[in-house]
Amino acid sequence: MTVGARLLTNRWGESFRFDPGNLCLELLLTGGPPPWDVYEILTDPAVVATWVTESRLTIGNPLAPEDVHLTPGDLDLIRAFRDVMWRVAPVIAQGGAPAPEDLERINAAVGDPPHTRLDPRSGLLRWAGPVTGAQIVAAAARDAVDMIGTDARERVRQCQGSNCSLLFLDTSRPGNRRWCSMQRCGNRHKVSTYRNRRPS
Ligand SMILES: [Zn+2]
Asked: InterPro entries under this entry (predicted)?
């Protein structure tokens, strides 16, 4: 499996792998305002803790669910930041300018990210628990600042599949990624192109 890719299942039961490219866009997979509320998971601290341990935050530095400490207030914090990203990321993907108030909200969220420590048994890095909701938001906000304030903003894309609203940061070397997943929208496009070319 590609590092940082998530196995997603849509409402029709199709599974596919999706790499959002960074944590602030990965957070959009936890749900959002309608119509994305059907994917909402920010209601149960234990579910979110597991989600965090499977997120790209843990690439390189492992984190166990018991090392994530989330209160209902933390979930509100994450949700508020996610709402900001739902407003900002689609605008960036279309080459537009996000609202200054939302950029200020992202700035305000850049706080104290999780800290690393040495695992005394393995001698390797891991995240120091307990990781809080504010730290998760801080890590995502730093990604957002790096993404929006640099040339990376040119690589924020919405999947070109019809009716697909998945947003990602294109980290491919040539910068020509068009689809959320070749398994899903890329394949559908190939099939429809083939059908259109076939003489009837
Ligand atoms: Zn797609």
From this structure: ABATE, ABATE_dom_sf, Znf_CGNR
